[in-house]
Amino acid sequence: LPGLHILAIVFALEVSVGKTNTVMALNNSDVLLPCTFTTCIGFQDLVFTWYFNSTELIYHGKIKSKASEPVLVGRNPRVEFVGSTTGKDNNISIVLKNVEFSDAGKYTCHVKNPKEKNAQHNATIFLTVVQKMVETDNTVTLIIVGVVGGLIGLLILFMLIKRVVLFIIKKTQDGK
């Protein structure tokens, strides 16, 4: 049975939403919900679905093989497929159009690969919808860093001048 365990690791299906699993969108804008998958042995008749808050199906697609693009099975009219699976990254990303505050929540990209004994995996993105994007103001931080840096520079300069003055005094005393 140890051999079977190793086989399970080799035939791993991975689903990813990128480096961060939180996305912020402006009210009434379009937002990209990224998702890619990888599989060690390829795929055949792979099924992928996007869910909103675990229960509401918003996109359902099927991919026959690596040589073909996904076929739409069903979708919410405000969702558009923007990925591609004939490229190298097996991108099954979607765009949610005209985002509203009620769209905030959990989006799950779910993949099922029959070629890997129906291995299933998913990844989740949390969407936050805001009225306006707030730019962080770093002015205060920059002022503090500048003042502290300036004080450290003055301290080093003072210590250097002190050393030079002491050196000159010592040399003039040795000369007498």
TrEMBL record:
Signal sequence range: 1-18
Annotated ranges, domain Ig-like: 2-126
Q: List, in alphabetical order, the Gene Ontology terms for molecular function in this entry.
A: sodium channel regulator activity; transmembrane transporter binding
Question: Which residue windows are transmembrane per the record?
Answer: 140-161
> What coarse category fits the chief subcellular location reported for this protein?
membrane
Q: What does the entry list under GO cellular component?
A: voltage-gated sodium channel complex
Intracellular or extracellular location(s): Membrane
Q: Give the source's domain of life in one word.
A: Eukaryota
Membrane topology is: Single-pass type I membrane protein
Q: Record's InterPro entries?
A: Ig-like_dom, Ig-like_dom_sf, Ig-like_fold, Ig_sub, Ig_V-set, Myelin_P0-rel
Q: Could you tell me which Gene3D superfamilies the record lists for this protein?
A: Immunoglobulins
Q: Which protein, by its recorded name, is this?
A: SCN4B protein
Native source organism of the sequence: Stercorarius parasiticus (Parasitic jaeger)
